[in-house]
């Protein structure tokens, strides 16, 4: 975990819920495969230090198939092809952002480094069993991480993208004031046509960041389509 996050989340590690969660993960990993790999559970914190967060994109839990989850919501590493939800995210980006080229890679690390926090409510999952680690304690931990984002004294405002009911409930529960919360349907192929596609969230986010943080402060989403991918 990046020091900026560890310093503010350290008190959570001593709480009963986290000790119980830790033991659950130890027991779970002895009999089942757990994703992402243990060394990647906190990769979101290393790629997006606390003081760099400009945009928060909430997921529910990690991808649960082989070679997918690596610690960022919606993101997958090569050679894994972008899953359906991410393909729909790319479709919306291509509509919102001038010059955006849909990438062949599903790795979102490059925009994470620019201040986009791709955070799942639950940070682990049992292989091939979606939602299997929900309500084990992760939600309390990640909610505190979000509260620490809101508590930053140097913060000029954060954009929260809450796609789907679960993410929207999380935003409601932590009480977000003086920030921008963008809500829509989830980008899953099952629901994207119900309001995700066409939501203009990336366009709206950059416009809001430019207004509140100053010229040039929007996210350069085009780095995802750069040839280095």
UniProtKB/TrEMBL annotation:
Q: Does the keyword Mitochondrion apply?
A: yes
* Record has Hydrolase as a keyword: yes
Against InterPro entries, the record matches this protein to:
UDG_fam1, Ura-DNA_Glyclase_AS, Uracil-DNA_glycosylase-like, Uracil-DNA_glycosylase-like_sf
- The domain of life for this entry's organism is Eukaryota
Reaction(s) this enzyme catalyzes, per UniProt:
Hydrolyzes single-stranded DNA or mismatched double-stranded DNA and polynucleotides, releasing free uracil
Native species of this protein? Agaricus bisporus var. burnettii (strain JB137-S8 / ATCC MYA-4627 / FGSC 10392) (White button mushroom)
User: What protein am I looking at?
Assistant: Uracil-DNA glycosylase
Q: GO CC terms on record? A: mitochondrion; nucleus
Q: What does this protein do?
A: Excises uracil residues from the DNA which can arise as a result of misincorporation of dUMP residues by DNA polymerase or due to deamination of cytosine.
The compartments listed are: Mitochondrion; Nucleus
Q: Which UniProt keywords apply?
A: DNA damage, DNA repair, Hydrolase, Mitochondrion, Nucleus
Read off the SUPFAM superfamilies from this record.
Uracil-DNA glycosylase-like
Instruction: Name one process (GO BP) from the record.
Output: base-excision repair, AP site formation via deaminated base removal
User: Which molecular function GO terms apply here?
Assistant: uracil DNA N-glycosylase activity
Residues at the catalytic site: 61
EC number annotated for this UniProt entry: 3.2.2.27
UniProt-listed Pfam families: UDG
Domain Uracil-DNA glycosylase-like, by residue range, is 46-209
In the record, the note on similarity to other proteins reads: Belongs to the uracil-DNA glycosylase (UDG) superfamily. UNG family.
């Amino acid at each position: 975990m990046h020091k900026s996050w560890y310093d503010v989340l350290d008190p959570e590690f001593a709480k009963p819920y986290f000790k119980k969660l830790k033991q659950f993960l130890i027991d779970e990993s002895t009999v089942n495969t757990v994703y992402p790999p243990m060394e990647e559970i906190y990769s979101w914190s290393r790629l997006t230090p606390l003081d760099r967060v400009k945009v928060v994109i909430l997921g529910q839990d990690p991808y649960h198939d082989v070679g997918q989850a690596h610690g960022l919501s919606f993101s997958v590493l090569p050679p894994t092809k972008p899953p359906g939800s991410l393909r729909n995210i790319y479709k919306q980006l291509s509509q919102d952002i001038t010059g955006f080229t849909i990438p062949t890679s599903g790795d979102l690390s490059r925009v994470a480094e620019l201040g986009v926090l791709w955070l799942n409510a639950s940070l682990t999952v049992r292989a091939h069993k979606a939602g299997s680690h929900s309500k084990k304690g992760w939600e309390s931990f990640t909610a505190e991480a979000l509260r620490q984002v809101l508590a930053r004294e140097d913060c000029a405002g954060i954009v929260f993208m809450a796609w789907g009911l679960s993410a929207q409930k999380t935003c409601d529960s932590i009480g977000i004031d003086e920030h921008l919360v963008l809500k829509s349907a989830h980008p899953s192929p099952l629901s994207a046509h119900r309001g995700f596609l066409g939501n203009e969230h990336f366009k709206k986010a950059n416009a809001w960041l430019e207004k509140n943080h100053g010229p040039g402060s929007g996210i350069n989403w085009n780095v995802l389509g750069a040839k280095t991918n």
